[in-house]
Design a protein that fits this description.
Two copies of one chain form a homodimer. Chain A folds into two domains: 47 residues, Homeodomain-like (Arc Repressor Mutant, subunit A, Orthogonal Bundle); 129 residues, Orthogonal Bundle (Tetracycline Repressor, domain 2), CATH 1.10.357.10. By secondary structure, the first copy, chain A, is an all-alpha fold. The relative contact order of chain A is 0.10. The first copy, chain A, is elongated and about 60 Å long. Chain A contains ten helices and no strands. In chain A, 75% of the residues lie in helices and 0% in strands. At the A-B interface, helix 7, helix 9 and helix 10 of A face helix 7, helix 9 and helix 10 of B. Chain A binds a DNA duplex through helix 3.
Chain lengths: 202, 202
DNA sequence: GTCTATATGTAGATAGAC
DNA sequence: GTCTATCTACATATAGAC
């Protein structure tokens, strides 16, 4: 390898292959061949497959945090920031139609495998959830987390169905509907959440 | 096996294991052990793993069609029928929180594997889509398919996030929000869909 | 129809030369 | 750091006895 950092090259390729073909379906041979190294060399950098998965999730967590920080910088207004989240469905449309959402599909696969790194992968969702929630808080919403989760619901649902039906017009339409929903919500007065139960014993 | 039909027992167990642990992660040994037959006997009934997958998808297609027919019988009003679709998120809540939506996770996995039976699995989505669309048509909506797809978006998004966060209150709340959305939609006048493009050359 | 035994391929993982 | 050779485990799949 002429690369300065083989380890980085492995993680980058594993990240891509895990997304495109799934974690379980991506073998050491697949990753090694794609990077251009032997399996033996592979094991010099990672002793187990779980180690690679951990590195990939760590990388995604870093990149997601960086993306959100970038959105914070580029869009001062919370309303615009939320819109950028919704629009990633358009920005990454081609990949989402082919492979689904990188976060949703990884968490789904690890849940099926009952994998110990599932909680770590779920932190990817939490990054978006908490960031969205902060934007709604900044807009004075008491039900910020409810709205944040609802936007996650819409984006995940669109990703799943975009992957199944591969219909660009559908994605654009749902993005428009989500933006309309956002406008509608933000034109209301802030609403207090009702307590979920009155009995203290439950 | 004391069962009358071993083949049926295999398909039934494979259906369950594919749902709980994924298609690729469920081996012949797993299925055979769970049913209580040897691997040799297994191959008497199914020559390849794809054959079992085909049988499982076929079974799900039949059961889904039967479920929709049952809803048609039990609920004459389209509005109530649509509500029943939304409420499967509550009915199957425990399973969805553990393993996600059976349809969404199967289609997602087969998409990753680029599996030839992906189109067949996607028909599961189409069954719900078309059925929902017919209900909205019965309610006089010109944009019936748009509304049907939107309900699929919501249910798939809730399933993905219920699987990740395992939060019952979240599921109940989103179901309520979906019902509210439905009420809001059905209290409007029917809306014509705009043509997606004016140019006939595109 | 069901079983045991076995063939064959491929996965993850290791040892040791260079 | 990188390679080749190798090991072990397990997956799909087959053959043939009962």
């Amino acid at each position: 390898m002429s690369r300065k950092n083989t380890r980085e090259a492995i993680v980058e390729m594993a990240d891509r292959l895990f997304y495109e073909h799934g974690y379980e379906h991506s073998s050491f041979a697949d990753i090694g061949d794609a990077v251009g190294i032997s399996r033996g060399n592979f094991y010099y950098h990672f002793r187990t497959k779980d180690e690679i998965l951990e590195a990939v999730i760590g990388r995604r967590l870093e990149q997601t945090a960086a993306l959100l920080a970038q959105w914070n910088q580029e869009s001062p207004a919370p309303r615009e920031r939320i819109a950028r989240f919704i629009e990633i469905l358009i920005t990454n449309q081609a990949k989402i139609m082919r492979h689904g959402c990188p976060v949703g599909t990884l968490c789904g696969e690890l849940a099926k495998l009952d994998h110990p790194f599932l909680p770590m992968a779920n932190q990817l969702f939490s990054l978006f959830r908490d960031w969205l929630s902060r934007q709604f808080v900044a807009l004075g919403r008491a039900d910020a987390d409810v709205l944040a989760m609802h936007l996650l619901v819409r984006s995940q649902g669109v990703a799943v169905l975009a992957n199944a039906f591969r219909d660009e017009a559908f994605v654009r339409r749902e993005v428009r509907m989500a933006c309309d929903w956002l406008d509608g919500e933000l034109s209301r007065e802030p609403v207090k959440i009702q307590a979920s139960a009155t009995s203290p014993t439950v």
